[in-house]
Design a protein that fits this description.
Layout: H1 5-18, H2 20-30, H3 40-51, E1 53-55, E2 75-77, E3 83-87, E4 94-96, E5 109-111, E6 116-119, H4 123-126, E7 133-135, E8 140-143, E9 161-163, E10 168-172, E11 186-188, E12 193-196, H5 202-205, E13 211-213, E14 218-221, E15 235-237, E16 242-245, E17 259-261, E18 266-270, E19 284-286, E20 291-295, E21 308-310, E22 315-319, E23 332-334, E24 339-343, E25 357-359, E26 364-367, E27 381-383, E28 388-391, E29 405-407, E30 412-413, H6 416-423, E31 431-433, E32 457-459, E33 481-483, E34 490-491, E35 505-507, E36 512-513, H7 525-528, H8 530-534, E37 540-547, E38 551-555, E39 562-564, E40 586-588, E41 595-596, E42 610-612, E43 617-620, E44 634-636, E45 641-645, E46 665-667, H9 677-705, H10 711-724, H11 737-750, H12 772-775, H13 783-791
Parallel strand pairs: 3-5, 4-6, 5-7, 6-8, 7-9, 8-10, 9-11, 10-12, 11-13, 12-14, 13-15, 14-16, 15-17, 16-18, 17-19, 18-20, 19-21, 20-22, 21-23, 22-24, 23-25, 24-26, 25-27, 26-28, 27-29, 28-30, 29-31, 31-32, 32-33, 33-35, 34-36, 35-39, 39-40, 40-42, 41-43, 42-44, 43-45, 45-46
Antiparallel strand pairs: 1-4, 2-3, 37-38
Length: about 800
């Protein structure tokens, strides 16, 4: 299946519910008679359909010759013994759809959705004179839609609902095929690979057309003006295509429109046109992800029925119109990533009692958070991050009893202690992004701060906080993601860290933490097993996490397991118990003062895709067993005191030379210093010893923790990661950009630039650390070397900035 099965499954159900009245009327006339039995001709047509299935989902148990086909599973007949219904959704059917179904002269309702059917859609079904409802969505059908015969049918086709969504159809959308469908009311062709222009004659051919869904295809060209002739059109969805140009004036003649969705295209122009006022029946307006400009028009206040407004990711400017206060039925307002300015006080939010989601991220809004927002008692998600707001949090935020998602990052808020004391009363709060505020304050150690028992994501990065990691965090028992990077926190990593039994994403990089890596960090339950993460309750985010035009993430558990201690002043050795953290995908201990050898046990971290131990004082040889990490794509041990030959084979043959730089005693084909014969012989002996050690370690480790990960389990765990975190596959070469990408996705959740705590593609090197002074806090790494050391992990080509990656 393709990228949006869930999305289209919802659409399919909506379509069926939308026309439930039609279906019920049909069923009244189509109820099977207990005394009826189908004709031999009808039975033969069904058996030919069965014969073309390579997997019949158990139908053969009841579909047997010599029995009444009116009693077969999924089949219903009319009084005249003709088959009226074939309803076989979600049966696991595999194979081709036989054209013999077109010979069922009385067939009115055919539902083959959510199966594994492939091949083309028989023209006989589209040209059937009896079928009223045809649903083949969520299959693997491919090829092109064939044109109907050039000669017109003897009588108009009866087809009213056609759902071919979520397949693999390609080619141009046929135009002549619709001329015979005078009764068509709903067409869902979304989530395919159709190309070319949108046919202009939909409404001329099908004057009763009510629902038209063409989203997630590759349609190009302009929106046809002929769609304005659809006097009964209520839903028009053509988002996620390549449509261009402006909105045609004729479109505004479709005054029955309730749902207009044209998001993620290349449309442009201004919305301040008088013609658009005629669309007063709109319930949902989604024009996000285009190039619309100008102000949000005042006539928006005339859309009294409007419930959802999406103008995000455009070039809208000016202030929020006061007229928005008149849209009293608004539930969702998404205006993020525009160039809106002025103060939020222009809108009287107390007039929007139904508002649940308000997203104004990444604009140029200023002033304070208006008190009227706290009157929106149904608000569940509030994102005001990346603006120029200032002031302190109001205690009235406690009125938002349903608030679970709050992002205020990258503003100029002050008084972190007051903010935490207020927010602790928000009992439903699960996601909190307040980083890049409160600059230079002391992170509160107040023992009375509690109440965050439902918090799952906490981001207080980039604030240049001083002080220690506060103990009140330990009481956030459900915390899964913790971002403290880019501050000036001192002291050790607290020993209570393993009490956060759900934590699997921890970033405390770019601070001034000292001491040794605590052994309790090696006891993190979520990092010790991939099964622990996959078995967690995948709580749905209140705001969709997106990456690119078509990838969406709605759960916290779709993110990778990360342990990032980079750029601190940690000392001591890397604990050999690190091998217990088998769920880790990203491990970064770089830019510290760690000493000793690289533990052999790291070879047990079979899910690792990024390992960075650069810029420490590590000694000894590189463990040959590391080449068993088959998914390791980004690796650096540069700027240490390692010695001996670089292992060959496996992933080591794919790493850049810079991964091993500034280790004067290393040798190998990847370096200018080649190994002599004695060193090569030593490498063979060392490899044998390390192999013996690995076997011994696995045996000893298994005695306490069970049998080690087998190779097939390794493959399965990696496949699970790819499914859950598909955004990392966007980059062909997964170097250090993967790490940035992981946190970038989280950044999208809260729109707070986490990349400043990692590596940003288009950020000057001097600003890539959240605090310049932190670079000097570990004086053995000169700043000039710091830049050179990490440059090898940067992507080599400059990528166009995606607005969804900000």
């Amino acid at each position: 299946m393709k990228k949006l099965q869930l999305h289209n499954r919802t659409y399919s159900k909506v379509l069926q519910m939308h026309y439930l009245g039609v279906a019920l009327v049909l069923m009244v006339f189509c109820l099977p008679s207990p005394t009826s039995s189908c004709t031999e001709q009808e039975k033969d047509s069904l058996l030919r359909f069965l014969a073309e299935l390579s997997q019949d989902g158990g139908l053969s148990a009841s579909w047997r010759n010599g029995t009444d086909c009116c009693k077969w599973e999924g089949v219903a007949c009319r009084q005249d013994r003709t088959v009226s219904h074939v309803l076989l959704p979600s049966k696991g059917l595999k194979g081709h759809i036989s054209r013999s179904l077109g010979a069922l002269t009385g067939l009115q309702h055919l539902d083959l959705s959510e199966n594994l059917l492939s091949g083309g859609l028989p023209r006989e079904l589209l040209s059937s004179g009896s079928i009223v409802f045809l649903d083949v969505s969520l299959n693997q059908l491919n090829g092109t839609l064939r044109q109907l015969p050039s000669s017109p049918p003897a009588r108009p086709l009866q087809l009213q609902v056609l759902n071919i969504s979520s397949n693999l159809f390609a080619g141009q959308f046929p135009s002549a095929i619709w001329k015979a469908m005078e009764n068509l009311m709903a067409l869902n062709a979304s989530n395919n690979n159709f190309i070319g222009r949108v046919p202009a004659q939909f409404c001329n051919s099908s004057p009763s057309l009510t629902v038209l869904d063409l989203c997630f295809n590759k349609f190009s060209g302009s929106i046809p003006p002929g769609l304005g002739d659809c006097s009964k059109l209520r839903e028009l969805k053509a988002g996620h295509n390549n449509l261009s140009g402006t909105l045609p004036d004729e479109l505004f003649n479709a005054t029955s429109l309730e749902y207009l969705s044209l998001e993620n295209n290349d449309l442009h122009g201004v919305l301040d046109t008088a013609n658009m006022v005629s669309l007063r029946n709109l319930v949902t307006l989604d024009l996000g992800g285009n190039r619309f400009s100008g102000k949000i028009p005042d006539y928006i206040g005339l859309f009294k029925r409007l419930e959802e407004l999406h103008l995000n990711n455009n070039n809208m400017s000016g202030q929020l119109p006061y007229a928005l206060s008149n849209c009293t039925n608004l539930i969702t307002v998404d205006l993020k990533r525009n160039r809106l300015s002025g103060e939020l006080t222009n809108v009287n939010f107390s007039n929007l009692p139904k508002l649940k989601t308000l997203d104004l991220d990444s604009n140029n809004l200023s002033g304070t958070v208006p008190e009227s927002i706290y009157s929106c008692s149904n608000l569940t998600a509030l994102r005001l991050s990346t603006n120029n707001l200032h002031g302190q949090l109001s205690s009235r935020i406690g009125n938002l009893k349903h608030l679970s998602f709050l992002s205020l990052g990258k503003n100029n808020f002050t008084n972190i202690t007051n903010a935490l004391q207020i927010l602790k009363s928000s009992k439903n709060l699960s996601t909190l992004f307040i980083g890049h505020n409160f600059r230079g304050e002391i992170l509160s150690q107040d023992e009375t701060i509690d109440g965050f028992e439902n918090l799952q994501v906490l981001d207080i990065q980039g604030c240049q906080f001083s002080g220690r990691i506060p103990v009140w965090i330990s009481r956030a028992a459900n915390l899964q993601v913790l971002l403290l990077c880019g501050n000036r926190l001192t002291g050790p990593i607290p020993g209570w860290i393993n009490s956060l039994s759900h934590l699997f994403y921890m970033d405390v990089s770019t601070n001034r933490l000292t001491g040794q890596i605590p052994l309790t960090l090696m006891e993190m339950p979520m990092l010790k097993s991939t099964e622990n993460i996959t078995h967690m309750n995948p709580r749905v985010f209140d705001l969709t996490v997106t990456n690119g035009p078509s990838l969406e993430y709605r759960t916290i558990t779709s993110f990778p397991a990360v342990l990032n201690l980079r750029n601190n002043c940690l000392t001591g050795v890397i604990p050999p118990q690190i091998g217990q953290l088998k769920a880790l995908v990203v491990l970064d201990f770089s830019f510290n003062k760690l000493s000793g050898q690289i533990p052999q046990s790291i070879c047990n971290l079979t899910n690792l895709q990024l390992l960075d131990l650069s810029s420490n004082n590590l000694t000894g040889a590189i463990p040959v067993a590391l080449n068993a990490l088959h998914f390791l794509s980004a690796f650096s041990i540069s700027n240490n005191n390692l010695e001996g030959p670089i292992p060959s084979g496996g992933q080591f043959d794919t790493f850049q030379n810079s991964s091993f730089d500034r280790n004067p005693n290393l040798c190998g084909s990847a370096l200018t210093q080649k190994c002599n014969s004695a060193e090569a012989h030593q490498a063979i002996i060392l490899a044998a010893k390390q192999a013996d050690y690995k076997v011994a370690f696995v045996i000893e480790f298994s005695a306490f923790f069970g049998v080690g990960v087998l190779y097939d389990q390794l493959v399965l765990s990696s496949f699970n990661f790819i499914i859950c975190f598909a955004s990392w596959t966007i980059n062909v070469a997964l170097r250090h950009a993967q790490f940035r990408g992981a946190l970038t996705s989280l950044n999208i959740i809260g729109a707070d630039n986490m990349t400043h705590c990692l590596i940003g593609e288009d950020v000057p090197w001097s600003s890539r650390f959240c605090s310049e002074s932190i670079v000097h806090s570990c004086p053995y790494i000169p700043k000039s070397e710091t830049a050179n050391t990490r440059n090898h992990l940067l992507p080599k080509r400059k990528r166009k900035i995606d607005e969804d990656d900000t």
